[in-house]
Amino acid sequence: MINIVVELSKYVILTLMIVYTFFCFYMVKKQNEEEKKESLRKQLTLIFFMDFTAFLVIFLKTYDIRVVIFYGEMMAYFAIVQILYRLIYKKASMLLLNNMCMLLSIGFIMLCRLNIDSATRQLVIVAGGSAIALVIPVIIRKMKFLKNLTWVYAGLGIVLLAAVFLLAQTSYGAKLSLMGIQPSEAIKITFVFFMAALLWRDVTFKKVVQATIVAGLHVGILVLSRDLGSAVIFFVAYLVMIYVSTKKPVYLGVGAAGGCAASVIAYHLFGHVRQRVSAWKDPMAVYQNEGYQIVQSLFAIGTGGWFGMGLCQGSPEKIPIVKNDFIFSAICEELGGIFAICLILVCMSFFLMIVNIAIQIENPFYKLIALGLGTEYAFQVFLTIGGATKFIPLTGVTLPLVSYGGSSVMCTILMIAIIQGLYIYREDEDEEIERHRREAAKRARERAQAAAERNY
């Protein structure tokens, strides 16, 4: 009986995910306010039923009461977050909030299936991060001096990265954390703020050189620390923000060429880079060593097929560091390739919303922040999924909101809070523009009426 429930559940979960993904893009269409609210309510209902089905299956396969307790705590967290945002920030993007809850749900499901203790720790960190994040939109809207802290952002980032390089212990071949905290995750945010603060007023050659030097220091320290994934994310964010602010393709071309040259130099200078490229080119040739992870990842993805093995039916634990760098492979094995494609589409919807906010904001400082954070998010998703599927060499980054990792999930939630603040700021801008338009129209009518009375 349990096996029948497990087999049916994977189709139920897949159907719910497909419908949720449809609503992500359906709401882009022009709708009135009531239709939007109804679509958002349907999304929340889909998340609820997906979580209920998944955790029911995990409990039936494990009979671990901790699964039931975790499910109750998780649903309480989602309910509190949804209610608080609706009470405190009436102008916030509920679609952005729903997408965050869906991605967190997928992560909690897989972590609970892999290791209930890791899932519990992740939930505690997520709850703490969400509590802090509640004040972020207010800070974004009210603290206008943020754009004047250019060199504070730069100095903070360089000092923290240098401290990791000098003091951190090597873990999985790289220096990543100090006292259990990975500073590079937080510095992704401060780096974007630095670039925006430097470039929002003017984009002279001097400013571009300053940005290049600071970005080079960030990327260089990360490469020396062997944190290749973060180094690439920083570099891509730098390139995109320089190009958008200057609108000069020559900077984009020179930067891309410099990045390619730096990659070749890094390949010849650093053994760990050569190992990852070797594992990417032919993982079976080095299966017993650096190729083992990617081979197991590909086996998991192939085993899952389109519809997956079903929760608790696969063997994702055979992949080293599966809950961190290879959570996507575990999702493919147990929930299927179609579910994984829907996950990618939800992440894409997330990114497109951020880009849309960036396009509509008039303030150049906030516009650059939205664009930079969106670029970092999208490229991190690309690196994680590309590495797990052998599309690109492994870079060792997590899938935002889904993978296990305290620093990563905490900083991603803070990033989303910043985006919410920018979304609310954009709504305020629209209201201000509409108010000026009404006042102008009113003055025009008054002038026309006065002219008519004089003529009379």
Describe the structure in your own words.
The structure is a single chain. With 456 residues, the chain is mostly helical. Helix content is 77%, strand content 1%. The chain has 17 helices and 2 strands. It has helices at residues 2-26, 33-62, 65-88, 94-114, 116-133, 136-142, 150-167, 183-199, 205-224, 228-246, 249-269, 271-281, 292-304, 327-335, 337-360, 364-388, 406-455; strands spanning 170-171, 174-175. The protein has a two-stranded antiparallel ribbon with strand order 1-2. Helix 8 (183-199) runs antiparallel to helix 9. The longest helix is centred in the C-terminal third of the chain and has 50 residues, at 406-455. The chain is globular. It starts with a helix and ends with a helix. The model has no long low-confidence stretch (mean pLDDT 86).
